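Ticket #4471: structure export looks truncated?
Reporter: QA, pipeline team
Priority: medium

Steps to reproduce: submit the single chain below to the structure queue and open the exported record.
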Amino acid sequence: MPKLWNETIQAHRREVRDAILHTASALVAAHGLHAVTMSRIAEEVGIGRATLYKYFSDVEAILVAWHDRQVTGHLEYLAKVRDQADGAGERLEAVLEAFALITYERPHGTELAALVHRGEHVARAKQQLSDLIRDLLTEAAETGGVRDDVAPDELASYCLHALAAASGLPSKAAVRRLVTVTLAGLRPRA
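Actual output as written to the record:
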């Protein structure tokens, strides 16, 4: 097959896959997890059920793929935030604030969260996030901006657990205060 034909087919498959993921997540948000069926997703996307089954085996597989895409996007965003900041302390603060705001804005306590926040893709993403924070902490400790009497892995765990509280805060201002308090716990001992 000509290269252009292959690229066109691949682009079409990506568009259909993206439409499936978007539609499924929108339906769950609007009607709840148990109200969403493969038939309804196919109908909303404008494809046949047989076509839908060529892409995904069930609703859960669709939602896990959607979540994996969301998590990948968040990790890419955090890396971009890191790369745009100057200086070790600024990079750390920017990434911690961005992570806290992501945590604040995502839905929690839902059926969807319970479904997608498990499995290897989540464990892998948590490790990547922890590694990103650990590396920033290591860099900041080398410049004297962060305490060096606690292992960077332990400090990364502290940051991630502390900032998880952002999910229950009432405002972005409260999230920023939480980041400030978390950063205070990282300061070198006097």
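Status: closed, not a bug. The export was complete when the record was re-opened. Leaving a note from the reviewer for reference: Residues 1-57 form a domain with the Arc Repressor Mutant, subunit A fold (CATH 1.10.10.60).
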